[in-house]
Here is the input.
Amino acid sequence: MKWQGRRGSSNVEDRRGSGGGRGGGGKLIGGGIGGIILVVVVTLLSGGNVGDILGNLTSGGTAATTDTPYQETAEEQELAQFVSVVLADTEDVWSELFARQGLTYTDPTLVLYSGSVNSACGTASSAVGPFYCPGDSKLYIDLSFYDELQQRFKAPGDFAMAYVIAHEVGHHVQTLLGTTKELDAYRRTLSETEYNKYQVRFELQADYLAGVWANHAQGMNLLEEGDLEEALTAASAVGDDTIQKQAQGYAVPDSFTHGTSEQRKRWFYKGFNNGTIAGGDTFKATEL
Ligand SMILES: [Zn+2]
Here is the structure.
């Protein structure tokens, strides 16, 4: 992706090195309303604690505290800059798309952290992976996830990381559009198996919205050779079936909360082709 020398977002909060225990991310409400998207604990994933993009956030862990100021490497500095440019791009795209519908987009904040972090959705360790908390409208990311993507998920490339950020921003868009509330209502009234089906639709919609953003990135001529494939590879790598097979040797469809690799790729690609919010109603789609 062409990102160097471009505008970075001012909505980045750098909490690296501050430790989760003193990050000041607002009061902890554990599995309360704010945590709805993320706090369905998927115990099936052994080695577990995989985060939003992968599975679900486990809240309520103990945060480590440290007084050492964070020393970033040149590589981390570059990655932080990249993330900030991608976030700025999502701000531009979503502001424009909301405005077209007569709506106002409010920017989310992206929190960079290392090790563990406090959010309105609870305390999380970086083992959970990147996540979005509707309770404070913030995206949380430990940049070491970039290495995880390359090594564990075999999804290298800057656009794989861009997809991850765009997916989390997608959850912010869903919160602004009211879809998150809709899902929360299902959570309170349905059985876990039934609710999981909606959770999958919700996650696939975030993938669709990530694709919508990628469409506009392409429109701005920001994509480089291989970028689209990088995103599709990442979307596929974080499919429930792939992750479960990796973790336990087999997949349990009823427990899926994010969709299969095929579905995640398909909805990202659909968003990429459409470039509009319309067409992304995964809740009404007869086929996923
Ligand atoms: Zn998600």
Observations:
- The helical segments are 74-100, 145-151, 158-177, 179-189, 192-219, 227-237, 240-248, 261-274.
- The chain has eight helices and six strands.
- The longest strand covers residues 109-112.
- Residues 192-219 form the longest helix (28 residues).
